[in-house]
Amino acid sequence: MKIKLNKGRKSVNISILDNMVIDTLNGSDVKGLSHDYIKKQIANGIKKNSPKDIHNKKIVIIVPDNTRLWARGDIFVPVIIQTLLKLNVPEKSIKIILALGTHSGLDKSKFLPLVGKYCINKIEIINSANKNVQRLVHLGKTNKKTDLYITKEAYDADHIIIFGGILHHLIAGFGGGRKYILPGIAGYSSIQQNHSLAILKDGTPHPNVKQAQLLKNPVNEDMEDAATIFLKGKTSIYAAVAANGTGDIFYTETGSIKETFIKGCKQLNHACCVKISQKGDFALISAGGHRTDKLLYQATKALFNAVNSVKEGGKILFVAGAQEGIGNKIFEDVLMKYKKCPEKIGKKLISEFNMPSYIAFRLIDLLERFDITLVSTLSETLTHEIGFKYSDKMDDYIKNLKGKGYIIPYAENILPVMDTPKHKDIVNRSKS
Q1: Dihedral pair phi/psi, residue 32, rounded to 5°
Q2: What is the pLDDT of residue 430?
Q3: Whether residue 431 has pLDDT greater than 50
Q4: Contact by Cβ (8 Å): 143, 225
Q5: 348-356 LR contacts (CB < 8 Å, sep 24+)
Q6: What's the rounded Cα separation, in Å, for the pair 306 and 298?
Q7: What is the DSSP track for 344-405?
Q8: φ and ψ at residue 315, rounded to 5 degrees
Q9: Does residue 421 have a pLDDT over 90?
Q10: How many CA atoms lie within 13 A of 354 on its CB side?
Q11: Taking CA atoms, which of 83, 130, 132, 204 is between 20 and 30 Å from 281?
């Protein structure tokens, strides 16, 4: 069997015996939608769900930053703007806010792939406030005592439109919907408080904080509460998209934030949760290519998904271009400093929580429990320094594999789930 695993804009080509492969995991056979169809659905959804006095409202459109390029904001955000203009909304009444969370602010030169050429010189585009306290408004506390600070320009708006993708997420259960508010446009301190709910007082991960889990997930519950507080007194719409197992957008819906989000989560599970009857001795995986693997920090989402398909101690070949490097200095430093010592960083996170350190903590744990080889543009020295094994000889790697395993060409999109009687649809059971 010949397989291709995307690495940036190139690929790694591998040959492996058919009888060594349990299955290639690509998700349900859900076809992607044409861009024209998605545009039409978004435009119709905006028209149908906008308040009658939309032309008199101050509008903020919240969109993903450059870690969510697969959602194709460059194609679909202009449709939202054009539709609003046809509804007689003045250009000056519209702002676009890039939902950075804790990510660094983007220069205007980086806006094009996020919002498209049409928007660049027509609509005001700004980064969310993050650490800029002068641009933050305190809205009170959530039920879990998170002090909620929100970007002022969003607070000042009458009508909120969220555009962005729904995907499985390591701590929120699912990205999308309420997550574009907290952490998306929230202040840095609020985000740290929210994300710190992912770890228990003994320095171990909260058992309900994981992909596809909404019910009793404290991080998700806090995000939902924050969204309710922020949206009180405002009108709002969510233009959502989701990608199938091969990275093509298969779902689009525009409507109320909660209903659209939950419907999208269910559709995503149908398309991308793959039930498996056994775990493999190995997995050969890719983060999916240039739209998802520019930074190792972001590409690790694929690894956190794929590990569910491998026996404890098994081998994982992790292909991720990382052509723009590791992507976060804190993440990199923690990987180097606490390599082989996940318990130490876990205990430190109890009192000094930050998301890059938490992701590093979870990754260090995987590196201790599994035999993981990273194939990227990072040097052999750096690859070893951050805890991975290194290989540039794929034939030798394959020859040394034993047993049977899985191929996951788009592992960021695929969540393997053991098919057992205890498996439950936690989205259906969510109270969201």
Answers
A1: -70, 160
A2: 47
A3: no
A4: yes
A5: 348/203, 349/196, 349/199, 349/203, 350/199, 350/201, 350/202, 350/203, 353/192, 353/195, 353/196, 353/199, 354/102, 354/192, 354/195, 354/330, 355/102, 355/191, 355/192, 355/195, 356/297, 356/328, 356/330, 356/331
A6: 14
A7: HHHHHHHHS--HHHHHHHHHHHHHHHSEEEEESSS-HHHHHHTT-EE-S-HHHHHHT--S-E
A8: -100, 145
A9: no
A10: 13
A11: 204
For the chain, domains (ranges, CATH) are: 2-27+273-418 (3.90.226.30), 35-243 (3.40.50.11440)
Q: What is the mean pLDDT of residues 266-290?
A: 96
On the 0-12 / 13-18 / 19+ scale of CB atoms within 10 A, 329 is exposed
- Sign of torsion over alpha carbons 162, 164, 165, 170: negative
SS (H, E, C) 155-206: HCCCEEEEEEEEEEECCCEEECHHHHCCCCCEEHHHHHHHHHHHECCCCCEC
Structure token digits, residue 365: 């744990």
Provide the token pair at 296.
């190792």
Is 429 a residue whose pLDDT tops 60? no
The mean pLDDT value for 223-250 works out to 96
- Residue 403 structure tokens: 């047993």
First CA to last CA across the chain, in angstroms?
A: 44
pLDDT over threshold 80, residue 428: no
Q: How far apart are CA 342 and CA 116, in angstroms?
A: 42
How many beta carbons lie within 10 A of that of residue 140, not counting itself?
A: 9
